[in-house]
Amino acid sequence: MSIDISKLDEAELVDLNRRIVARLKYMQEARTHHQMLRFDVGDRVRFQPPGHDPKTGVIVKHNRKTVTVVTDDHHQWNVAPVFLSRVIEPPSAENASPARIVRLPTKG
After folding, report:
1. For every one of its 108 residues, what pLDDT tens digit does the chain have, with 9 covering 90 and above?
2. How far apart are CA 82 and CA 95, in angstroms?
3. Burial 25-39 (b: 16+ CB within 10 A, else e)
4. Which of 49, 56, 86, 97 to pair with 71, CA 20 to 30 A apart?
5. What is the pTM of this model?
6. Considering its fold, how many domains does the chain have in total?
7. Residue 50: inside a domain, yes or no?
């Protein structure tokens, strides 16, 4: 599909530019939203901020374009979901709870 813009006047070009920018913004927001759906509040994630060591933390909030992550060192970061990766950690022995047997009262 080819659009000949050479015949458009200035007002038409400005209008076309406005529409293009709005469409690109919509497409970017849709892509960000789709990426954000991969993560839930409470998920453990990892990301690499520029100039910093990799950070690991928990998602505490979904924002419009980012998610808020509280890192293990108790700092808060707003991170675009494209930079996140899920951390899957096996349950540790200290967090595992032993199985419990619950006895229900009997009639009688």
Report:
1. 788 899 999 999 999 999 999 999 999 989 888 888 899 999 999 999 999 999 999 999 999 889 999 999 999 999 999 999 999 876 665 555 555 655 666 665
2. 30
3. eeeeeeebeeebeeb
4. 97
5. 0.63
6. 1
7. yes
Assigned domain for 64 exists: yes
Beta bridge partners of 58: 44, 70
Length in residues, the chain: 108
CA atoms of 37 and 24, how far apart (whole Å): 20
Model pLDDT, residue 69: 96
Name the amino acid, one letter, at 85.
S
- The CATH number given to whatever domain includes residue 71 is 2.30.30.140
